[in-house]
Amino acid sequence: MFDKLDFITEKYKEMALKVSDPEVINNQPLWQKYIKEMGEMEPVVKKYEEYRKAKADLADAKEIVENESDEELRDLAKMEVGELEESIEKLEDELKVLLLPKDPNDEKNVILEIRAGTGGDEAALFGADLLRMYTRYAERHRWKTELMDLNDTGIGGVKEAVLLVKGKGAYSRLKYESGVHRVQRVPETEASGRIHTSAATVAVLPEVDDVEVDLDPNDVRVDVYRASGNGGQCVNTTDSAVRLTHIPTGLVVTCQDEKSQIKNKEKAFKVLRSRLYDLKVQEQNKEISEARKSQVGSGDRSERIRTYNFPQGRVSEHRIGLTLYRLDSILDGDLDEIIDALITHDQAEKMKAF
């Protein structure tokens, strides 16, 4: 580990010299490439500097304990030795986390898809709750959101929604939300007060560039049709809605959010590329041995990951055994405690392998 840290430190110093070279400064693409690489290395370099300083301070404190005749100074040094040893252990763990292989998609924007599952209208109403929860979560992180497609029930429910979330690190946090979300509550229409269980599926896909997915336009059938639902004067008067069918995989994407057919087509292709990329990643993950797979980050669409229990005001995160009794604030977008716990668990699993 320390050989790798020394190598990164030396490479960082070399980059620092390069970015101040006039020839590199005049070559903006190259200069930006080096700056980006330095930015990725900087947290590791700074943490390693902090670690080395703590080790040097520990050596000095131990020398005082062994050689100092003043009892009071020795006692102070002994206290410092204990504190520094604890600090060094923590810094080593932090360095291990920083050296873990990075998910190349972590800094990307997110295409988040919500689909109502079992439970009819109640499942669709829960789908609307999830859409609001993720929109509010994005607002808390000052990420931008754009509703790309919405299939509602007309009574406030959401059968299907596609939300684009734009912001630094959006995928690194939202990727843990993929899976089946279950709700337990008494529907407003239930006269006897029985608790119903419904479900909705969430899929979190990284937004991908054109170059990352080999998409042949000849493999895509494009259909246009008249939009339905809320949408102003253009609804049911122009063929603005777009449906894409990817013939080799059978994937179907629809978009009718915009009044412009061109804009809807652009958005639909963006979603299709992300779904194709996700398929490619899922296939690659199957080839990775189960022992090396992260238990949290598998993104299995069929896995029940969380239960929202309204009578008890409880949210249970099944993957890590976490239960919180603050349902209202979580549905209002206060998800950080759950996501931080999932990230910590995921890192711990990866560190075992590391």
Short description:
This protein is of the alpha+beta class.
Characterize the largest beta sheet: strand count, sense, and whether it forms a barrel.
8 strands, mixed
First-residue to last-residue Cα separation? 10 Å
Q: Helicity range of the residues?
A: 40-55%
Q: What is the strand content?
A: 15-25%
Topology:
Blueprint: H1 2-18, H2 22-26, H3 28-67, H4 71-99, E1 110-116, H5 120-140, E2 144-152, E3 158-166, H6 170-174, E4 179-185, E5 196-206, E6 220-225, E7 241-246, E8 251-255, H7 261-287, E9 304-309, E10 314-317, E11 322-324, H8 327-331, H9 336-353
Parallel strand pairs: 4-9
Antiparallel strand pairs: 1-3, 1-5, 2-3, 4-5, 6-7, 7-8, 9-10, 10-11
Helix pairs in contact: 1-3, 3-4
List keywords for this structure.
alpha+beta, 9 helices, flat, 3-stranded antiparallel beta sheet, 11 strands, 8-stranded mixed beta sheet
